[in-house]
Design a protein that fits this description.
Shape: elongated
Strand content: under 5%
Helix content: over 70%
Distance between the termini: 53 Å
Structural class: mainly alpha
Largest sheet: none
Order of helices and strands: HHHHH
Length: 105
């Protein structure tokens, strides 16, 4: 599926659903029961090994992982900048002074 708006909608609904402890517990119990079957585990393992043998797929996973990490860092940076802008000038200066003094150590 190459429709980001659909994926994000599904992702949001899944997060909301799994935030409910009962839903989360039912999902975990179901997965535990399913993966208790050795035949299913072997089937999934074989399928995973076959897919991961493809270098193009591994490269795609690597690129998506790097993009996800970069996006997370950007979000964190934006949060820091937002918090920084709300701080009083004295607090900012105190923080900068502390950073400078730790650099000199």
């Amino acid at each position: 599926m190459n429709r980001p708006e659909v994926r994000s909608t599904i992702s949001e609904r899944t997060k909301v659903a799994l935030a409910d402890p009962d839903v989360n517990a039912r999902q975990r119990a179901g997965l535990k029961r399913a993966f208790a079957d050795p035949a299913l585990r072997q089937k999934i393992s074989a399928r995973t090994k076959a897919r991961m043998a493809d270098p193009a797929l591994r490269q795609k996973i690597s690129e998506r992982t790097k993009a996800g990490v970069a996006a997370k860092l950007e979000r964190q940076f934006a949060e820091i900048v937002s918090a920084w802008e709300k701080l009083p000038k004295k607090v900012r200066q105190r923080f900068l002074d502390r950073l400078r003094s730790s650099d000199e150590r």
